[in-house]
Write a structure and sequence with these properties.
- 2 copies of one chain form a homodimer.
- Chain A has a single domain (about 5-145), classed as Roll (Thiol Ester Dehydrase, Chain A).
- The two termini of chain A are about 25 Å apart.
- The radius of gyration of chain A is 15 Å and the shape is globular.
- Chain A has a 6-stranded antiparallel β-sheet with strand order 1-2-4-5-6-3, covered by helices on one side.
- In chain A, strand 1 and strand 2 form a beta hairpin.
- Chain A has 1 helix and 6 strands.
- Helices cover about 15% and strands about 35% of the residues of chain A.
- At the A-B interface, helix 1 and strand 3 of A face helix 1 and strand 3 of B.
- Strand 3 (about 90-100) of chain A pairs antiparallel with strand 3 of chain B, so a sheet runs across the interface.
- Chains A, B: Belongs to the THEM4/THEM5 thioesterase family.
- Chains A, B: It is found in: Cell projection, Ruffle membrane; Cytoplasm; Membrane.
- Chains A, B: It is an enzyme of class 3 (hydrolase).
Chain lengths: ~160, ~160
């Protein structure tokens, strides 16, 4: 299954978190499961992505939630509208990001993020995320995403930061 | 003036965001102004820290708010207790992080984060942050920080992720 981010056209594919054209980036990839209405992102942090030794850096966890949420928004919106991302690439940016660190996330194992769109309304999507390390829920995320249009990045006038 | 993070003892100085012992990290440094009760963090993103070309990646902005907030919490708590960080290094981790992306943040200029502790109560501190690019407020952050003790990182039982 092709990751949502791989549908982004080249002008929107430079994101440090998830752009396939960013050589120094994290290359986060998110997969959408239409039958469940859920997204999944898997990512194994590098040893240097540490907070206190032994635990994953909170800023990296926020970055994972961020890019996972923008991709989830694109997939959920496409499904809600009956569009294929192949023919209609959609790109969302983040208006607001909330991350609750429920427990320290161990550094080492692959992390799994599971996302669902709680609201799809016009150009706005709200995504809820749960992040698991070895089956244990350690982080809960909520993001408000806004769809951008083709002109974004030229005028610099649109909202969002993710 | 010595940055707050440079008071952290070596076992707490590996953070990818702000640890002076993390060779691959961002080395975020935060300065505390006791007379104003405010912290300041200055950071210039790298060209690859992009979201949509021309704008700073939201995950990096969340990371800046995160480490800036943990340092602000340490300094504010030390001031509230009348302690010197030199003699009493304090270390906070993040329990919750909220970032509102009010406008796209331009990639290129140095960014300035200004923080204040809204609440200092026991081991908990709430920090509010404003992030400016060329004098324009683009991001607003709120973080809940929890002070950790000397045993943290050995037992792995304490809360927090930042």
């Amino acid at each position: 299954m092709k990751a949502v981010q791989l549908y982004y056209p080249p002008e929107w594919a430079h994101c440090y978190g998830c752009g396939y054209l960013n050589a120094q980036g994290l290359r986060i990839e998110t997969h959408w499961h239409p039958e469940r209405g859920e997204s999944e992102t898997r990512f194994t942090p590098k040893p240097y992505h540490t907070a206190i030794p032994g635990f994953v850096y909170g800023g990296l966890l926020a970055s994972l939630v961020d890019c996972h949420s923008t991709a989830t928004a694109a997939a959920a919106k496409a499904q809600a509208e009956g569009l294929s991302l192949e023919a209609h690439p959609l790109r969302f940016v983040t208006a607001s990001l909330k991350v609750d660190y429920l427990k320290p996330t161990p550094l080492g194992p692959e992390l799994l993020l599971v996302g669902r769109a709680r609201e799809v309304k016009g150009k706005k999507v709200v995504v809820e995320t749960e992040l698991f390390a070895e089956g244990v829920l350690t982080v809960r995320g909520e993001a408000v995403l806004v769809q951008i249009g083709e002109g974004f990045g030229r005028s610099g006038s649109a909202p969002g930061g993710g």
